Amino acid sequence: MESTLKRTWAEIDLDALAHNYRALRAQMEPRSRFLGVVKADAYGHGAIQISRTLEELGAAYLAISSIDEARELRLAGVHLPILQLGLTPSDQTAAVIENSVTQAVWSEASAMAFSQEAIRAGGRMKVHIKLDTGMSRLGFQCDESHFEQSLEAICRVCGLPGLDVEGAFTHFSVSDEDSESSRDYTLLQHERFETMLRRLAERGVTFSVCHCANSGATVSYTQFAHDMFRPGIITYGIGDQAQLLGLKPVMTLKSVIGVVKDYDPDTTVSYGRTFRTGRPSRIGVLPIGYADGFHRVLSNQWQVWTPYGTAPVAGRICMDMCMIDLTGLPQVGEGDEVEIFGPHNSVNEAAKLAGTISYELTCAVSKRVPRIYKKDGQETARELLLRG
Ligand SMILES: *Cc1c(COP(=O)(O)O)cnc(C)c1O
């Protein structure tokens, strides 16, 4: 890893994570527990270190999206309960039980298959019932025309011998948007959630852990705290709402200027010749490209941050390198570090230019980029996900 370190790396600020955890924790009533969403390698930040830190900070639960992600955390010695939010093939039931994973159950058919497999494996699978209140993804549909049929199905599921039903949850589709129609829709989703929970309770079916609040709801609907809340993106200090709570970005993607050269006016830079110098120019080469997660769509659009000002990306971002225009920044030269995104250079803005969301940009930081973990300004761990 030493060889790649002075190339491109992601600094992961565990103090920022602790700050965000405490700020989010303060948002919700104390009885509501914190579930840290660490799927997709903790949104690219590295699930093991993030999970260990959240565990130390007092989180109650973690969530992932594949059984392999759960196994990775167990092998790393993470003991917190883990909720598998996503689809799991029923032939993985034994692995779910062995790794003490709580599985989301999204339909009666999946529940029956899990129950059968659990009995065959000689155990019981802990589950949370997923309610589809309007996301139209996984779960028992809670809209008017499916409500009664879902109610009956959930009652049957809760009686299956191979399942240990601990919780019920739902997921919002527009809780992070503040238009009136989005607010109405979020309230409707929550009303469906509560109605289903109440009708189930009338049938004697209750849950010890009910939860619904993602990042958007944690910011804007603190009344949805229930027993647990499930913030993802905002825990990492990014997304449009992070500023509202004074959260700090956890990831800083950095690179270092490898070469600087002078060019005459009217010189073209990089593939496709999409950038043309308009004046005598100093152009720097950075060892970061789209294979590191620096999306090519940001070519000629984004700018990297230096302590002396920002330097625009000049020309197309290549697979492993890109060029930046340093003409206005004579103090900046070879060997200097630049920030691709982070506290000085918002990933939210980069995402907007790329026509996407910040989630996609941190998730895209690739396995070739080492993650350097820092606490109290000191490096505490480093990870590189390349084989060998
Ligand atoms: C990803 C996910 C979350 C977290 O979403 P954010 O928008 O990152 O807060 C919460 N719940 C479920 C079911 C998810 O899939």
Counted by DSSP, the helix tally is 12
The strand order across the widest sheet is 2-3-4-5-6-8-9-10
How many strands in all? 21
What is the multimeric organization of the chains shown? Answer: single chain
Structural class: alpha/beta
Radius of gyration computed on alpha carbons: 24 Å
Low-pLDDT stretches are none
The pLDDT mean sits at 97
Largest pleated sheet: 8 strands, parallel, barrel
Helix content percent band: 25-40%
How widely separated are the two ends? 10 Å
Q: How does the overall form come out from the CA principal axes?
A: elongated
Tell me the layout of helices and strands.
Elements: H1 2-5, E1 8-13, H2 14-27, E2 33-37, H3 39-43, H4 47-57, E3 61-64, H5 67-75, E4 82-84, H6 93-98, E5 101-105, H7 108-120, E6 125-132, E7 140-141, H8 147-157, E8 163-170, H9 180-202, E9 209-213, H10 215-220, E10 228-229, E11 251-256, E12 259-263, E13 268-269, E14 275-276, E15 281-286, E16 303-306, E17 309-312, E18 322-325, E19 337-341, H11 347-353, H12 358-364, E20 371-375, E21 378-383
Parallel strand pairs: 1-20, 2-3, 2-10, 3-4, 4-5, 5-6, 6-7, 6-8, 8-9, 9-10
Antiparallel strand pairs: 1-11, 11-19, 12-15, 13-14, 15-18, 16-17, 20-21
Helix pairs in contact: 2-4, 11-12
Bound molecules: pyridoxal-5'-phosphate.
Residues 37, 39, 85, 171, 214-215, 230-233 line the site of pyridoxal-5'-phosphate.
